[in-house]
Every structure is written in structure tokens, then in C-alpha cells.
Design a protein that fits this description.
By secondary structure, the chain is an alpha+beta fold. The protein is 25% helix and 27% strand. The protein contains 6 helices and 14 strands. It has helices spanning 11-25, 44-49, 114-136, 158-161, 169-179, 222-225, and strands at residues 2-7, 29-33, 53-57, 65-69, 74-77, 90-95, 98-104, 140-145, 183-185, 199-200, 212-213, 216-221, 228-233, 249-253. The strands form 3 sheets. The protein has a 6-stranded mixed β-sheet with strand order 3-4-2-1-14-13. The chain has a 6-stranded mixed β-sheet with strand order 5-6-7-8-12-9. Strands 10-11 form a two-stranded antiparallel sheet. A hairpin with a 2-residue loop joins β6 and β7 (98-104). α3 runs parallel beside α5. It is globular. It binds one DNA strand of 15 nucleotides through residues 9-10, 12-13, 34, 36, 60-62, 107, 109, 115, 147, 201-206, 242, 244-245.
DNA sequence: ATGGTGGGCAGCCCA
């Protein structure tokens, strides 16, 4: 079973790329972030024709998440419990005996900004929720755009990035807090090419220079992590004309 | 150091 995550940065703009990528890769479950479409505008029919059911949690202009799956999706959750948040950044569902939690973690903009404090509060509330989810659902996958590079090896130029948003120590500590619940970054269970990243800024030729960060993650509970057989970043879609600034990440499980 | 690009929606917000 293949489970993927992809920040598409506008589903409207990226729909054709997504459909072609689905046809070429046939993942079983796909978590999308930054769909930027309201639920009424979600392209249900096109995805259904491609063989995918969909759950979505969208808003106008910003954010928005969706889960696509070949098998039925059930038990949707649209928010972190007991955390007031008008931004649509969370979508959880059960599928094929797994619990999938799709996240678009706040970017944080700049260390010490209001958006940064919101990001840290958001991650704390997320940790409380995921602790409970792990009790309810031992087969848990938490994936998406985490907007945090876990370690310096996930950063193209750690010296230049030190202390910045996406790599700052409080953000990394919050991410470690999630992992210490028993969620494994499955990408690091396998040998990977050096300088593996999942996001490259649109500016300054970042992709061409491979000036990226690895901020799109697939975390799996212990019971699932041991069944993970591969995890790779697919740079293909990032090299297309009019690409998203993120590449898809695909994890394979023997289930 | 700044600003470089891209998406959304209407001159600026967000990444």
C-alpha cells in the first residue's frame, strides 16, 4: 500500500498535474495540502473518474486539506479538538484499517511573530490530540506539510538557516514532541540520497540549485513503521512548468 | 542585506 503527501499549492492550478501523477503512480491514499478551494469547488468528479474518493476541508484563498483514497474513507475529523482555529489545516479519516491524519502546519512567517506563536500553540494542541489518537488507533499515519525541517541534514545550508522559521529550536522541539509519542519519520528508516529535500522556494533558482528543505513528512506509529518498506521524494512534479513549490513524498507499507 | 517567484483575489496577503 502506497501513501503519499503533496502540498499542491492550489488544487485548481495543479489538478492536471495531480491527475497525471495519480495515473502514473497509483497511490492508495494521498494527503493534499494548500488546496485553496472551497468545498463547493472541490473537483470531486474528476478525481472520482480517476478512481479516487475524496474528503476535503477547504476554505477560500488559503490553506485547505484533502484526503484521496481508492478505498472508502470514514470517521472524518476536521479540526484539532478543543483548539479554536478558523484556518482549515487538518483532516483525519479512517481508511483500509488505518487512521490517516493530514496536516498543513502553520508556516510561522518569522520567529517571534504572531504567526510563529500561533504555530507553536497549534503544534502543542496537535500533540495532545495525537497522543489520544494513538491510543484509539494503533495504526496511525500522520503526514503532510509540517513546515519544520527536523534536523540540519534536512536543510541545504544549515548555517544560513540557523534560528530561522522552519528550523528554529522551539519548532524542532515541538516536532520531536510528536515523534516522542511514538511517531516515526519513515523517510529516515531507509538510506536516502544526500541532500534530499521536499520543498524549494520559487525564488532565486532554488530548485535548480537544490536549495531546499525537507519539511513534508510521513510519520507512522510503531506498528506501521515496522511495516514500512520504502519512502521516497518524487522530484518529478517539482521540475514541471508551473510546478508546486513542494514535491510529493510517497511511503510504501506492507499491509 | 534585500529581494528574488508564485497563488489568490483585487493592491496586498501569504508562502
Amino acid at each position: 500500500m502506497q501513501i503519499a503527501t503533496w502540498n499542491v499549492n492550489s488544487l485548481r492550478v495543479r489538478l492536471v498535474q495531480l491527475l497525471e501523477w495519480l495515473a502514473a503512480n497509483s497511490p492508495d491514499i494521498v494527503a493534499l495540502q494548500e488546496t485553496k478551494v472551497t468545498d463547493g469547488d472541490f473537483p470531486v468528479a474528476q478525481l472520482e473518474a480517476a478512481g479516487y474518493r475524496a474528503l476535503f476541508n477547504g476554505q477560500k484563498s488559503y490553506n485547505g486539506v484533502a484526503i484521496l483514497a481508492r478505498a472508502p474513507l470514514s470517521e472524518p475529523a476536521l479540526a484539532i479538538p478543543d483548539f479554536e482555529d478558523p484556518q482549515r489545516r487538518v483532516l483525519a479519516a479512517s481508511c483500509d484499517g488505518l487512521r490517516i491524519v493530514n496536516l498543513y502546519v502553520p508556516n510561522g512567517q518569522e520567529v517571534a511573530s504572531d504567526k510563529y506563536e500561533y504555530k507553536l500553540r497549534w503544534l502543542r494542541a496537535l500533540q495532545v490530540w495525537l497522543r489520544a489518537e494513538l491510543v484509539r488507533y494503533p495504526r496511525l499515519v500522520v503526514l503532510g506539510d509540517f513546515n519544520v525541517a527536523p534536523e540540519d541534514r534536512d536543510v541545504h545550508d544549515p548555517a544560513a538557516w540557523i534560528g530561522s522559521v522552519l528550523v528554529s529550536e522551539p519548532e524542532r522541539a515541538a516536532l520531536r514532541g510528536l515523534m516522542e509519542l511514538g511517531l516515526n519519520d519513515v523517510f529516515r528508516r531507509f538510506e536516502q540520497p544526500p541532500q534530499s529535500y521536499s520543498w524549494w522556494d520559487y525564488r532565486a533558482g532554488s530548485f535548480r540549485r537544490n536549495n531546499g528543505l525537507r519539511i513534508d513528512l510521513v510519520l507512522a506509529s510503531a506498528a506501521l513503521a515496522e511495516r514500512c518498506t520504502a519512502c521516497r521524494i518524487d522530484r518529478g512534479p517539482r521540475s514541471l512548468e508551473r510546478a508546486s513549490d513542494h514535491a510529493p513524498v510517497v511511503a510504501s507499507f506492507e499491509i
